[in-house]
Amino acid sequence: MTRKLHLFAAIIATGLLSFSGVLIETAMNVTFPILIEQFHINPSAVQWVTTMYLLVIAIMVPLTNYLLKRFAIKPLFIIANLLFILGLSLDLLAPNFAILLLGRFFQGFGTGIGLPLMFHIILTFAPLAKRGLMMGIGTLTTSIAPAIGPTYGGLLTTNYSWHYIFLFLIPILVVSLLIGLYAIPYQKTNSTSSLDTLHLISLAIFFTGMLMFLNEPTKPLNISLFFVGLLAGGYSIRRAKTSPQPLLHLDVLKKRPYTIALLSFLAIQALFLGGSFIIPTFIQISLGYNAFIAGVVMVPGALISALLAPVAGRLLDRVGPQKPIIGGLTVACCGLLLLILACWQKSIWLLVLAHATYSIGTGFAYSNLMTAGMNSLAAAEYGDGSTIFNTLQQFIGAVATTIVATIMTVTQAHQSSITAGTNLGSLIGLACLFVLIFSALISCLGFFKKMQSK
After folding, report:
1. HEC string of 407-423?
2. Residue 201 lies in a domain
3. Residue 195 lies inside a defined structural domain of this protein
4. 359 neighbors 120 (Cβ within 8 angstroms)
5. Which PROSITE patterns does its entry note (predicted)?
6. Which structural domain, as residue segments, surrounds residue 336?
């Protein structure tokens, strides 16, 4: 009983840290129109509030895979928590855009360590029969947080100031730290593995080059960075194959069940982050509501995600992955079509219904895709498999945010008004997200059908 209590408390501690980290991804999205005016920047610049943060996480997660092999869990958790609190404090007092980005850097550093810790604890200490439920509880933090982020950010921005978004998270981090000091095991490590620095640097160059290009694809410097990023990505893959101790082993990608689950999971992550940018922006600019209303619209979907994550995990434990994943992706596609119609009709009530509908679908599919992918691996592959999930989760979130922000910037610049540009940009962005989710559904249908025929 004591062991189960400690496991649950450890998941709660790392879950609170991860929840805060993922919440802050989208909580600032509703403030973008305010930040653009306050700091005199354009949409392509302001989206770096999210992109900078996700970029740091994407770089840190693979590094954390190495850190978990060399250092005990508890001190890593403490460092992650303190760095996150430092980032929150900087942004609470940020007098300019540069300091705001610096604070986001430290928040990304802390989240990049804390997020893999949660899944490491679940995969290491939770029994297989309970793994679906535990992964559901853990993934709850990464699925509900993006949805309620705009609500949280909108409420505080409208009634106080965007600075309070960071202030109100500090007590949560303190509680997380106290629970973690009690519950997280020290777990000594005996590994003598060394850090492949070249592998880490090449990954960082790849992520940065891709995001810089997507942010402003016509800029000559960013075109150059794109090709530099491609070269760095190719070198990173080569290091993974030839280095005696690579940062990541990519052999897990050869397993079809894992890869199908990973790509479908990333499609939903793109929907989370891309949708969390599009919907609040559309509500404020196209429909004329304030940041608070833009956040409130996301509440029903957020509550649905909160209720479904552990339920969906329990369902996988009982009936397997096929029904919740296929059913969830189907409902998500229907919800997205409804969302496109809501933006076309400019109906806020239809928009609420559409967001709630696709949240039902993603609630059943999201955590179960990660669980199904991880269950297809051997125990020795959990570290690399989880790291790839978490790294690409953050990177695809940054890519999705960057792409929809770029679409919005371009359409606003080429339409007769900002409102008309936002309308068109929202529809184009949502159409792109629908293609991703529909592709994930077709891939999973084909895979499960092939498995049944065998």
Report:
1. HHHHHHHHCCCHHHHHH
2. no
3. no
4. no
5. MFS
6. 2-184+247-453
The number of distinct structural domains making up the chain is 1
- Please state, in angstroms and rounded to a whole number, the distance separating the CA atoms of residues 366 and 359: 10
Average pLDDT over residues 301-326: 79
Q: pTM of the prediction?
A: 0.76
CA distance 158 to 173: 24
- CA–CA distance, 412 with 395 (Å, rounded to integer): 26
Query: Is 424 contained in some domain?
Result: yes
* 159 located within any domain: yes
Could you give the C-alpha distances from 452 to 262, 368, 447, in angstroms and in order?
20, 19, 9
CB-count exposure of residue 9 (10 Å: 0-12, 13-18, 19+): middle
Phi/psi at 189 (5° precision) = -115, 150
Any idea which residue has 């940018």 for tokens? 277
Average pLDDT, stretch 193-204?
A: 83
CATH number at residue 314: 1.20.1250.20
Instruction: Check whether 375 has a pLDDT greater than 50.
Output: yes
Q: Please report, as a single letter, which amino acid is at residue 315.
A: L
Residue showing tokens 């850190």: 67
Burial of 259 (0-12, 13-18, 19+ CB in 10 A): middle
